[in-house]
Write a sequence for this structure.
């Protein structure tokens, strides 16, 4: 019994590998000669992939839940005392298991693509399935050869060390990694369709149209994953921040930036026939960067607070990255004459001009983040010197680019296509500009003295007011029903506006919580008090609680406003048997207006050192992230529509140009 | 009507300029608290025993001790470069999270500038070239399809989405 489960998991991975190789061969063959392959054969291959991945993932979970220490992965990442939730999440909390989750999600996306390929006449679709098969073959191969969690141990241990303490501490481990993976892996679908279109020597918007949904799903999930990751870091790591420009964080941010650029530039191609070749480049770059990001986080080349795993799959991922980049760019260059754009923007002062600026800014931002992240690795590899690139560098690059992006966000959506006159722009922008300058003046007079905060508040108000104005002016009737009808009719545009509002709100919170934060370090004896941010902070006592898998030592820190107790903060230290370093947990008191964050510096029964922070408006950052992701899902639309007339406003060019 | 609109425009323009002027004057005349030099410096120094965090963000004993040294030296009136050099002499360039624009990290600062110039140049170049040739002429049948599509869109009652 103990060996049956790992054997089943291993068999599942092999089945998936076989299915994906067959799919790659058949799919690419079907694209060349549609008659040579039957649809059912493709379906069988995809079902093998999906079935194999499900079997592997199930075996992993069953082995963890049944304390099957004969399996290598369980012996390395599990212990009998691990609570149920963290036993389940252990399946992706270490490298080998996370690769199994990767194959499962990729097989799931492939199955969805299969449903949209009606027959082998659909050469774009069969080719995409072939490319998906190739990518899946790589990942199933990794599970089978390099990161095999199903090895059977000859001498199973009686108990294991348990999961990494940081990954066995918070509900977020159940949400953040799967969401991030749904995003990361989802970008394989647009990549597959793009490569398929290039193989077919077919430019045009067909591949864009067919991958729009997959791309938005992936982007929205990646957005959600990034925000949850930031929130998680803020809640548990205890240094009072949510973003450290750490290599692992950057690895997820860079593809997000490029994918965001692609969402915008694909609109330009669909509407105006521009940026065809550029769209291929962006899709290829997004996918390649997810592989590079996985390489950075899964090999030991970078040192990171989030690096939980190191293994031999690093070289394999690097080789795959190089292969993807070389093959992809070669294909784009070979098809250069097919993918050259038909038209050029007439003027920078136009919607397409604004999109171009947006793409330039997002690409630059992605590039500098990539440069800063990989530079230390490159320098060490080339000259052998150790250097560090951290927050000061990234902030100095990201802040001006971020401001430029916010400005573009204010101007772009009100600018018409082709050419905008000054009169028209002034007409549309004067109201929002008035609101923006009023907001800037108001926060200044309210006592804010940071120019950065004032500028961000002003620009964000401008963006919000401009959206509001469009809601009112553009609606067929100025009633809630009329507005709803418009917002439903043009999901792409209004989903985008919702995401813009989220980004504007996020910018305000980032500026305000950073510039107006208060911080202090205090050392208190038992019973002693100190003042912080208008509160009296008292160290009352320290307690120890023995839990099944850990020893928790907490400090009771009482916050008083006047004489009223408003909060008892209980920052903790968790000690796990067999792990030398205790893991701290800050206490975060979130309210609508501010967070009070109490982290332990050191803790004795009679004496405590506390790091205290007050972050204004912090909660709204997570709300803002939710708005951005919600914008992506809104743009995705409700139920699929059949007739082209109803989808008006989204893709008129495609309607006119491609349904013949 | 036109007269009233123009008046409204002028009033709004003046109000915007006035409010911005108030903001700028208030910001320029404001007395800002002196920057927390010790905190700023701590954020620029990498914690030697941690993974990739600065000494401002780490709770490790080493980082706490280094923060203490930074605070002492600030209190003793040493300048920022002096304090940074003090740590650099002990730990090497590796300790600087804010890499200097010299030596092995010079390219880190030059490359983004070069790429920005290049990217802006490419965008502007494409603009100046203007449209790549005139649009291809449509056949009568194609014109009919375009007209029909426009009519359908009108009937559907949804305006252009760039028309707020």
């Amino acid at each position: 019994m103990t060996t049956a489960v790992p054997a089943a998991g291993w068999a599942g991975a092999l089945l998936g590998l076989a299915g994906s190789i067959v799919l790659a061969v058949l799919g690419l063959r079907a694209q060349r000669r549609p008659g040579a392959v039957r649809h059912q054969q493709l379906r069988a291959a995809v079902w093998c992939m999906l079935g194999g991945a499900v079997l592997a993932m199930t075996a992993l979970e069953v082995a963890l839940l049944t304390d099957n220490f004969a399996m290598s992965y369980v012996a390395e990442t599990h212990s009998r005392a691990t609570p149920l939730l963290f036993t389940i999440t252990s399946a992706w909390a270490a490298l080998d298991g996370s690769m199994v989750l990767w194959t499962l999600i990729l097989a799931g996306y492939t199955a969805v693509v299969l449903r949209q390929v009606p027959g082998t006449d659909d050469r774009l679709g069969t080719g995409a399935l072939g490319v998906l098969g190739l990518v899946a073959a790589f990942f199933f191969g990794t599970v089978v050869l390099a990161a095999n969690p199903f090895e059977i141990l000859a001498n199973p241990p009686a108990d294991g060390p348990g999961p990494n303490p940081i990954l066995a501490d918070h509900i977020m481990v159940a949400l953040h990694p799967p969401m991030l993976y749904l995003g990361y892996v989802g970008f394989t679908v647009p990549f597959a369709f793009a490569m398929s279109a290039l193989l077919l020597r077919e430019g045009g918007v067909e591949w864009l149209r067919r991958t729009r949904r997959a791309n938005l799903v992936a982007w929205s999930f990646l957005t959600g994953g990034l925000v949850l990751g930031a929130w998680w870091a803020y809640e548990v790591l205890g240094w009072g921040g949510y973003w450290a420009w750490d290599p692992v964080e950057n690895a997820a941010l860079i593809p997000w930036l490029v994918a965001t650029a692609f969402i915008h530039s694909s609109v330009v191609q669909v509407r105006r026939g521009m940026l065809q070749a550029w769209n291929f480049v962006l899709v290829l770059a997004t996918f390649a960067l997810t592989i590079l990001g996985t390489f950075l986080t899964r090999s030991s080349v970078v040192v990171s607070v989030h690096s939980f795993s190191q293994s031999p799959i690093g070289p394999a991922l690097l080789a795959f990255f190089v292969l993807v980049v070389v093959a992809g760019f070669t294909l784009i260059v070979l098809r250069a004459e097919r993918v050259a754009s038909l038209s050029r923007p007439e003027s920078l002062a136009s919607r397409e001009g604004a999109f171009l600026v947006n793409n330039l800014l997002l690409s630059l931002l992605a590039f500098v983040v990539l440069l800063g992240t990989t530079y230390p690795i490159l320098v060490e590899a080339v000259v052998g010197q150790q250097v560090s690139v951290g927050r000061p560098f990234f902030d100095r690059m990201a802040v001006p680019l971020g401001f430029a992006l916010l400005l573009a966000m204010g101007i772009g959506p009100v600018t018409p296509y082709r050419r905008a006159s000054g009169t028209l722009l002034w007409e549309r922008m004067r109201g929002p500009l008035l609101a923006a300058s009023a907001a800037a003046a108001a926060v200044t007079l309210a006592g804010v003295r940071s120019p950065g905060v004032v500028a961000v508040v002003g620009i964000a108000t401008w963006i919000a007011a401009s959206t509001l104005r469009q809601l009112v002016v553009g609606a067929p009737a100025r009633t809630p029903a009329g507005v709803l009808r418009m917002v439903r009719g043009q999901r792409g545009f209004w989903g985008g506006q919702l995401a813009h509002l989220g980004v504007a709100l996020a910018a305000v919170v980032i500026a305000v919580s950073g510039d107006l934060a208060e911080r202090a370090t205090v050392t208190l004896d038992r019973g002693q008090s100190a003042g912080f941010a208008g509160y009296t902070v008292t160290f009352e006592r320290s307690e120890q609680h023995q839990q099944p898998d850990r020893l928790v030592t907490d400090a009771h820190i009482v916050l008083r406003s006047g004489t009223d107790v408003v909060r008892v903060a209980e920052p903790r230290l968790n000690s796990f048997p067999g792990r030398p370093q205790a893991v701290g947990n800050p206490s975060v008191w979130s309210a609508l207006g501010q967070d009070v964050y109490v982290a332990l510096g050191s803790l004795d029964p009679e004496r405590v050192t506390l790091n205290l922070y007050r972050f204004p408006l912090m909660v709204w950052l997570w709300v803002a992230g939710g708005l951005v992701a919600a914008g992506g899902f809104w743009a995705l639309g409700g139920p699929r529509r059949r007739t082209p007339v109803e989808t008006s406003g989204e893709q008129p060019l495609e309607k006119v140009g491609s349904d013949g | 009507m036109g007269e009233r609109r123009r008046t409204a425009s002028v009033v709004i323009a003046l109000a915007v300029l006035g409010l911005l002027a108030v903001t700028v004057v208030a910001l320029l005349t404001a007395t800002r608290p002196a920057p927390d030099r010790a905190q700023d410096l701590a954020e620029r120094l990498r914690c030697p025993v941690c993974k990739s965090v600065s000494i401002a963000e780490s709770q490790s004993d080493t980082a706490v001790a280094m923060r203490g040294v930074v605070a002492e030296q600030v209190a003793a009136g040493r300048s920022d470069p002096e304090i940074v050099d003090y740590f650099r002499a002990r730990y090497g360039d590796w300790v600087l999270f804010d890499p200097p624009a010299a030596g092995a990290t010079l390219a880190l600062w030059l490359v983004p500038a070069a790429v920005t110039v290049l990217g802006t140049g490419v965008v502007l170049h494409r603009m100046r070239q203007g449209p790549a040739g005139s649009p291809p002429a449509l056949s009568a049948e194609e014109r009919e399809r375009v007209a029909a599509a426009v009519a359908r869109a009108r009937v559907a009652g949804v305006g252009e989405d760039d028309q707020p």
Q: What stands out?
A: The radius of gyration of chain A is 27 Å. Chain A touches chain B through 91 residues (CB under 8 Å).
